[in-house]
Every structure is written in C-alpha cells, then in structure tokens.
Write a structure and sequence with these properties.
Helices cover 42% and strands 13% of the residues. The protein contains eight helices and seven strands; from the N terminus they run βαβαβαβαβαβααβα. Strands 3-2-1-4-5-6-7 form a seven-stranded parallel β-sheet, sandwiched between helices. The longest helix has 29 residues.
Length: 271
C-alpha cells in the first residue's frame, strides 16, 4: 500500500486518466476527492470506490473560490491533505486561424491558471505534511500538433510552472512538484472524439506504427501506475521533474517515409 493514509485531490477524475489515477490511489491505500463536471459519472466512481474512500465535488475549476472549496472539502471529510493531482484540462482543437484572444485566455484559465490556483490554495496544508503536487501535462507541451495550438501553449506553460515551483516550493516549503506528460492515451473522451471525426468504433486497433510502434496506444491505467510513484514517499526528494510517457521520442523522431495512408483525423490530434 504505497499511499496508505494519504488524502489526495484528483481534478478531472470523473473520466479518463484522472479516474484511473483516483482508482489506483485508493487501491494503494489513499482517500480521494473526485472532481469533475460529469455528476452522474462522478457518482459512479464514488460508488465503486466507496464513500469511506472517496467524495465527489462537481464544479468548474475556473469559478471564483473553486480551488479553496476543493481543499476545504478534503479537510472536512478526511481531515488532512497530502497531495493534489492537477489533471483536469480542456482538450480542444484550434489553430491560429480559429483562435481569438478570448478563446486562448479560456484555455489558459482551465489548463494553466486553475492548476496554479489549486496549488496555492493547498500549499499551507501540503507544507504541514511535506506533501506533493503532480501535474498532468502532455507531450504537446514541446510544440504541439498544428490543430492543438491553444491546448499545446497551455501545457507548455504548465510545464514551466512545474519546473519553477518544483524548485522554489521544495526549498521553501518542503513540497515536491513534478509532472508527467502523457502521449496518446485511449480515454473514453478520446475514443469518442475519434469516432465523431468519422473513424470506425474500433479505430484504435489499427494505429500506424509511426504513432504506435508497440501496436497500440497507451491505457489510462498505465498513466495511473506512473502517477503513484510521484505521489508516494518512494520518490524521495525528487522535485521539478517532467517525465514524458510515450512510446517513441516525440522530438526528433524519424518521420514516416509515406504519410499518404495516414488519415488526417489520426494525424491531427494524435496526442
């Protein structure tokens, strides 16, 4: 039980990677705050985990005071707070032609500013227990797909936040801050997006090798397994680190000799 007696807030945990992380945390002995916007799905997660292990909070993280309310809930229900996982994000297609200033600000508010606000709200309590923060980024942080511009920018900013706070908060407060950057993960939302783009129900069973040398993309449970290390005491004093969880080098990888057979809907949002 690598997370025995720890209390962890996992944002965006009604579905996908966040849900998998919350489930794995409970399996490792933790109690969790489930958060998201999908009330029915969140209730299903809590029911599965048990009310003694999980509590649900439904709210837009950009609402004034939302971060403090999440922190307060953890303290009221479980009596302490050991870690936060900033997983909630808006994955939305855009490029320079379809992005205006208001849209870019909204993406940054959800994907970058909300995680910052939750870290700030949680810091007094994390400092008491020498707790930790795990930010969930994306390999798109390095430059991103052409049609994921605003999302990629927000994840690049989150990565810089992790590096910055991973140094300062560790020295000043004893709080570790690290990040994992998932590659292409088969979440419920990703499966639905690709189906809506016209791909067949089983599109993920035949992914071009340039995107999935292993023959498949990643599972949410594999992201959760990696998250546990950074949330557990076994990661020791390590802070300010960003780890890419992908099956090939994202920067500098060899391009395919012929991309004509790769559907645009696969190429455009491959992460």
């Amino acid at each position: 039980m690598r997370l025995q007696n720890k209390v962890i807030i996992v944002t965006g945990s009604c579905t996908g990677i966040g849900k998998a992380i919350a489930e794995r945390c409970v399996a490792e002995g933790a109690q969790v705050i489930i958060h998201g916007l999908e009330k029915e799905l969140g209730e299903e997660v809590v029911e599965r985990l048990g009310s003694c292990n999980a509590t649900l909070h439904i709210e837009d993280l950009t609402s004034p005071g939302a971060s403090q309310r999440l922190v307060n809930l953890a303290l009221e229900v479980f009596g302490r707070l050991d870690a936060i996982v900033n997983n909630a994000a808006w994955v939305i297609s855009s490029n320079i032609h379809t992005t205006d200033e208001a849209f870019l600000r909204r993406v940054l508010e959800i994907n970058t500013i909300a995680p910052f606000a939750l870290i700030k709200a949680a810091l007094p309590h994390l400092s008491q227990v020498r707790g930790c923060v795990l930010n969930i980024g994306s390999v798109n942080a390095y430059s991103g797909e052409p049609n994921l511009m605003a999302y990629s920018v927000s994840k690049g900013a989150l990565m810089t936040l992790t590096r910055n706070l991973g140094d300062t908060l560790h020295r000043e407060n004893g709080v570790r801050v690290n990040q994992i950057n998932p590659g292409w993960v088969l979440t419920e939302n990703e499966a639905q997006r690709k189906h809506e783009q016209g791909l067949p129900e089983d599109w993920y069973t035949e992914i071009p090798s340039v995107f999935a040398p292993a023959g498949r993309i990643l599972w949410p449970s594999e992201m959760a397994a990696a998250a546990v290390y950074w949330l557990a005491d076994e990661s020791g004093p390590i802070s300010g680190q960003v780890v890419d969880l992908e099956q090939h080098p994202f920067i500098g990888r060899n391009p395919p000799k012929d991309t004509s057979t790769i559907p645009n809907s696969v190429r455009e949002e491959s992460k």
